[in-house]
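Researcher: Here's the sequence for the chain we discussed earlier.
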Amino acid sequence: AYGLVSLYSIILTSITLGAAGIFRKVIVPKYLDRGHIPIFIVYTMSLFLFTGILTLSLLILSVGYIPALDASGLPQNSRDYGLLMALMYLIILSLSFLAQWQKNRKTQLESSELKAEMLEREIEFRHQELQYLKGQLQPHFLFNTLNTIYGEAIKKSDETAQLVLKLSDLLNYTLYQTNKEEVRLTDELDQVRQYLELERIRFKESVSISFREDLDDDNIQVPPLLLLPLVENAFKHGVQQNGILKIDLDIKVKEGGLQFKVENTSEGNMPGSGIGLTNMKKRLEVLYPDQHQLTITHDESTFTAQLSILSIKPTLA
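Model: Thanks. This is the structure I predict for it:
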């Protein structure tokens, strides 16, 4: 009886594992994974039917046609065809879906690792791009400031010493603070004021500057040199009207959002974008994707640049 049970179990197990292997390695990847559902159903039913025929043949052979074998030695459940088929199909499906789950899990893990690696590379690329843009912005800003001092020096102006002092403060900020990812907005505004004072000295009575501030958070962080390019652009492209260059600045910070508007008197055609504005637009795309809007308008007498940022905390902070 023990030998009969062992032989019967080995054959039945072989049929079950063979059917499970065909189902998992052939039918599922070839038809189900590729979306051929009708063909998958046909082949699955055919496999189950073939497996059922083999099992029924084994049962009939063991019980009815081999008198030398003591069929009574088989457990009662082993002679119940319906139960045998139900258990066999359950085992086939369980093994197949377990293997498929492991395969999907492995694929998901590999996909997650790949996405993480791609994200890391993207962040590194954006950091390198920011450093490149910042490196271009600093020389451009210093070049324009030095031109201002040079113009005063040629005229042997008494204001040259004050200009050099203001430039020294700006250099300190440019060299030591712009290496940081973020600075306090109040520090950035201090540099804007320093630059405005420098331009006041240069233009003397021929410039009118107003600067309005409405901040609900003094400790908010911003990327360095975020605002200066717009201010510098206003002086670079501003045109005097009735002997006066008017510059109006307005900054508001509310609920984590920032609005900064710069208006200057102008005339004629809209000036093209210089290095400062071009680099600023690129930095904004990297720092605040889908979170900012830079609007530039120009009419016969006024040039306006307005920056709006929904959430001031940079993406790469």
